[in-house]
Specification:
The structure holds two protein chains of two kinds. Chain A is an alpha+beta fold. Helix content of chain A is 61%, strand content 8%. Chain A has a five-stranded antiparallel beta sheet with strand order 3-4-5-7-6, with helices on one face. A two-stranded antiparallel sheet of chain A has the order 1-2. In chain A, a hairpin with a 4-residue loop joins strand 6 (556-561) and strand 7. Chain B has a five-stranded mixed beta sheet with strand order 1-2-3-4-5.
């Protein structure tokens, strides 16, 4: 794990209290945007003002607990990363289904079932780690970036703005975006840490100064009490076995989304990131599950890991998990101060869009880099391509997905990330069927062209999505090995005068191993390069140099005699 | 298979190498290189932009050329190494023996 250059406060760094508090507020100001989801649900379900305030408070409480659980990473719960939770409208269709069947107590009670399902999915994902490959993580992170960007562009342009636009909202949005970009690109130190906050603050200030506050927002603010103790649970609990499937599928959709956000958190924290750490991701999804179990108990809205908040942390250079405790504290405190939370509704929608556009760029590029870091064969190209297409199709085909597909699938189709990643996961799993982790092929020394060996290794590398530089090193080493096997007579010829070398590849998520087996003598390895004189004066020097190159090109190398006159050269390359 | 084409730029002989410098190609490469030195070449630049592979036998020829030119008070410079070839030069310690440039334009 290596600290990325753009990160000022890394995963385990402890920022000074003032900075941590400000970064926490910045995260809050971004996540607060998603509080707008809560009134949207309230409007749909005709929930009264009082209950609506309690719903917002419970959601804030669970968000606060959730972000801390995620960062602590103890007792098998929590990834240890800064990965806040947010509400999403992707859960509304399932909750509406439950409300129609048995009222709000059923809609919220079943959220606990969803949480329990996520706890199980955490374990399932860990066991299926060969399916959750780098390119799949890349698809998830790319789709989070695209989704965030799409939302950002529509909000920035004032399209479908909840509550409509107010005077100079769009201009204010572009001003906010300009402030974020200027602070992020042309400043260093503290200002860059707060670039998103600066944009949101300037947007809010200019909007209030130039256009004033909407009358309905002013009334809402006046009517909201400063302090209030949430009454839990507001709607109660109920359970209906018929709704288990839709809520489990919703849990799957949220878990897939969580996989993407957590993979992004890992990628943003490690400039040498190679592949998703599914053990950490599994613990992270469990933390999300526990949070949603609590949400079910206290009647909060279901929460999912926020790719946007993870991107904000990376974009502003502070991915420290200690921020989670500050943010958690702020979220919990705000649950008791409703007057402050309604302030988020004063923020013009295009300013929120500006933040989403700003952050989506970082996420989108991180996802594309994850995909491009691997060699892809046709199976993986199809997995990535179809996954991305499904995700991108979510917005234009949203209506079709909701109305025409079986109802139990609706939760997955209500989020571009869940839809795309579900499709890609399915394909990744299908393509794994019959694709063993071992492959063998025999080559005849002198008859087989070295290019055949290279092509074979290249195909294996692509089939397993290995990193290009790892495959290149393995090809180079095998080239050298074949050359000395041929030139120095290490391989015993058979009755037809052929020297047969069997090449086997073994792949797991961490290593790419190439084994050459043949009848004959062991290739001598050298831990030191020969002297220049030795190299110039004899063939032994060239052989020593070959043995040294093999020793250095592979991360682990073993050359040994097997039984029945066989010998083996095993080269392991760490991903 | 190794292809070598040469051009003269002032007092510098520029050799463009393409293909692989494996054991078989090394013998022809060595003969060619010694012929350049015998013919009076003292400033040699080798463009390796199209070399995909160098084996230990190929490294030996580079060492031999460097030694012969040093004895003749000449010099050899290498340019445009591919990542794979650069790895081998780094691993073998040969990157410290030679002046290596990113492109041909950087040498001349």
């Amino acid at each position: 794990m290596k600290r990325p250059e753009n990160i000022v406060y890394w995963l385990n760094d402890r920022p000074p209290a003032a900075i941590a508090a400000f970064v926490g507020l910045q995260q809050m100001s971004f996540l607060g945007v998603y509080l707008a989801i809560s009134p949207l649900f309230v409007r749909t379900e005709n929930i009264g003002d009082h209950d609506s305030q309690i719903l917002m408070a419970t959601t804030l409480l669970v968000s606060g607990v959730g972000v801390m659980l995620q960062a602590v990473g103890r007792l098998g719960i929590g990834s240890g990363y800064f990965c806040p939770l947010q509400t999403t409208s992707a859960s509304f269709a399932t909750m509406e289904l439950a409300r129609l069947a048995g009222g709000l107590e059923l809609a919220f009670g079943m959220v606990g079932v969803m949480g329990m399902a996520q706890i199980l999915f955490g374990e399932v994902f860990r066991r299926l780690r060969s399916v959750f490959s780098v390119e799949l993580a890349g698809v998830a992170v790319t789709l989070i970036g695209l989704g965030l960007g799409y939302k950002g562009v529509t909000l920035l342009g004032g399209i479908d703005a909840p509550g409509g636009l107010w005077k100079h909202d769009i201009a204010v949005g572009f001003l906010a975006l300009a402030v974020m970009i200027v602070c992020n690109v042309w400043s260093s130190g503290s200002l860059r840490l707060f670039s998103a906050f600066a944009g949101l603050a300037v947007g809010l200030a200019v909007s209030v100064l130039v256009d004033g506050i909407r009358p309905e927002d002013a009334e809402n603010y006046k009517a909201t009490p400063l302090l209030a103790l949430p009454q839990l649970p507001t709607f109660g609990w109920a359970f209906d076995p018929k709704l288990v499937v839709p809520y489990v599928v919703l849990g799957l959709a949220f878990s897939l989304h969580g996989f993407g956000a957590l993979a992004a958190a890992q990628r943003f924290n490690d400039s040498e990131w190679r592949h998703p750490d599914m053990a950490q991701i599994s613990r992270g999804i469990r933390a999300e599950g526990v949070s949603n179990l609590i949400a079910g108990l206290v009647n909060g809205l279901p929460l999912t890991s926020s790719g946007g908040a993870v991107s904000l942390a990376a974009a502003t250079g502070c991915t420290s998990r200690h921020i989670a405790y500050w943010l958690g504290g702020i979220l919990i405190a705000l649950a008791f101060v409703p007057k402050v939370t309604v302030l988020w509704f004063v923020l013009p929608v295009p300013v929120i869009g500006a933040a989403a556009v700003f952050l989506s760029s970082f996420t989108l590029l991180a996802g594309l880099q994850m995909i491009a870091s691997r060699m892809l064969d046709n199976r993986k190209i199809l997995t990535v391509g179809i996954g991305l297409l499904l995700g991108v199709s979510h917005e234009p085909l949203k209506h079709y997905y909701r109305e025409e597909l079986p109802s139990f699938l609706v939760p997955v189709t209500q989020s571009s990330v869940a839809l795309g990643v579900a499709g890609a996961t399915l394909l990744s799993g299908v393509f794994r069927i019959g694709a063993g982790t071992r492959r063998r092929r025999s080559f005849v020394l002198g008859e087989s062209q070295l290019d055949d060996v290279i092509d074979y290794l290249d195909r294996q590398g692509r089939a397993w999505g290995a990193r290009a530089d790892v495959v290149r090193r393995s090809e180079y080493a095998m080239w050298q090995a074949f050359e000395i096997l041929h030139d120095y007579g290490f391989v015993v010829r058979n009755e037809r005068g052929q020297g047969i070398v069997e090449v086997e590849t073994l792949v797991d998520e961490f290593t790419f191993t190439v084994i050459a087996r043949y009848r004959g003598e062991v290739i001598p390895l050298a831990t030191h390069a020969p002297s220049h004189d030795a190299l110039l004066e004899s063939d032994t020097g060239i052989l020593e140099m070959a043995g040294y190159l093999l020793y250095k090109l592979a991360d682990r190398v073993r050359s040994r005699a097997l039984s029945h006159g066989m010998a083996e050269l095993r080269l392991t390359f760490v991903e | 298979m190794l292809d070598i084409t040469c051009e003269t730029r002032g007092e510098v002989l520029v050799a463009h190498l393409s293909g692989r410098i494996d054991a078989a190609a090394s013998r022809a490469f060595e003969e060619q290189a010694l012929a350049w030195v015998d013919a009076g070449t003292r400033n040699l630049v080798m463009d390796l932009s199209s070399i995909s592979y160098i084996s230990s036998a190929g490294l030996r020829v580079f060492l031999l050329i460097a030694k012969k030119l040093k004895e003749a008070e000449g010099s050899v410079k290498l340019c445009a190494l591919t990542p794979a070839v650069n790895d081998v030069f780094e691993i073998s310690g040969f990157s410290r023996l030679f002046s290596i440039y990113p492109t041909l334009d950087h040498v001349i």
